[in-house]
Write a structure and sequence with these properties.
single chain, alpha/beta, Adenylosuccinate Synthetase, Chain A, domain 3, four-stranded mixed β-sheet, 7 helices, 10 strands, GTP-binding
């Protein structure tokens, strides 16, 4: 990404769906399609047909929504990038296995400015849930990840990621299909040392990140089998590391 990067909206296309689809596949340059922000916060847990009903959104906000929502043929879909925060947030009610109802959760909320821009509604915050993210990847088939808000973790002495769901002491082999099961699960974490005292906000290459931050990112990649291509380290549009 450079200072010359520009994003342009697709112009209004008069006529019908046929005109729009023809424009997308024959005339338009590379087109970026994004789901609702709710899906980005809630991951696959909020999918209408594949999430934890009834705590779901009302539309198909997975990669399949690009086809069903735009009428775009699947063969024209190129790379699929998963945009995920370095921790997990959720808006409103519903299950949240890794939620932090303590000072760490409040710290993430404050430092990450986790409240709605329009409503001012606070988002619930918790540790990164790799079980949920792995399920999301299974549904969407990510080419690579964009890991955002890494700098929000800068002041923590230790950082956890959820790696296993258990029920009655037994590992669950799959992501739970029932919201009732989600209420009963126990979460198993892997704990990493933080990089407190080493700010990531000025870093612009992967190797310039603190050692423990690199270990954290590499673990995410290894667990999911998906590379992290971009890392967000601040609110400025140029506060981004491109890894490859």
């Amino acid at each position: 990404m450079s200072n010359d990067t520009r994003w342009e909206k697709i112009p209004y296309i008069p006529g019908n769906i046929k005109n729009m689809i023809e424009y997308l596949i024959t005339t338009a340059p590379t087109t970026i399609v994004t789901p609702t922000a709710w899906y980005q916060h809630g991951l696959a847990i909020g999918l209408l047909s594949l999430g934890t009903y009834p705590y779901v959104t009302s539309s198909n906000c997975s990669i399949g929504g690009a086809c069903t929502g735009l009428g775009l043929p699947p063969k024209y879909i190129g790379d699929i990038y998963g945009v995920v925060k370095a921790y997990t947030t959720r808006v409103g009610d519903g299950v949240f296995p890794t939620e932090l109802k303590n000072e760490i959760g409040e710290h993430l909320q404050t430092r990450g400015r986790e409240w709605g821009v329009t409503t001012g509604r606070k988002r619930r915050c918790g540790w990164l849930d790799l079980v949920l993210l792995k399920y999301t990847n299974m549904i969407n088939g990510f080419t690579a990840l964009c890991l955002t808000k890494l700098d929000t973790l800068d002041e923590l002495t230790e950082i956890k990621v959820a790696t296993t769901y258990k029920r009655n002491g037994v590992d669950l082999p799959n992501f739970p299909a029932s919201v009732d099961t989600m209420h009963d699960i126990e979460v198993e974490y892997v704990t990493f040392p933080g990089w407190r005292g080493r700010s990531t906000s000025e870093c612009r290459t992967f190797n310039s990140l603190p050692h423990n931050a690199r270990l954290y990112i590499q673990f995410i990649e290894q667990y999911l089998g998906v590379p992290v291509k971009w890392i967000g380290v601040g609110k400025d549009r140029m506060a981004m590391i491109r890894v490859f």
